[in-house]
Amino acid sequence: MKKILNAIKKFFSFIFRMIKGFFVGIVRFIVLVFRQMKKMRWPSKKLITSSTVVVLTFMVFMAVVLTVGDFVIINLLRLINY
What we know:
mainly alpha, 2 helices
């Protein structure tokens, strides 16, 4: 009976250490993330705005290119009765 109780004690001790290690790891990760974020050099509002405009312009351009290409391909397929 003592062996069974000892095995159960070891099992729950192991589980507790695993759970404790998991949460300690999460807290350590969050602390390290905040430390790194303090070291970062954040971009200015002007740079963010200009980058956003570039990305949105490129997206609109690609949408137009893909729409025109799709339209041309569909009409070519209709032309050959596919």
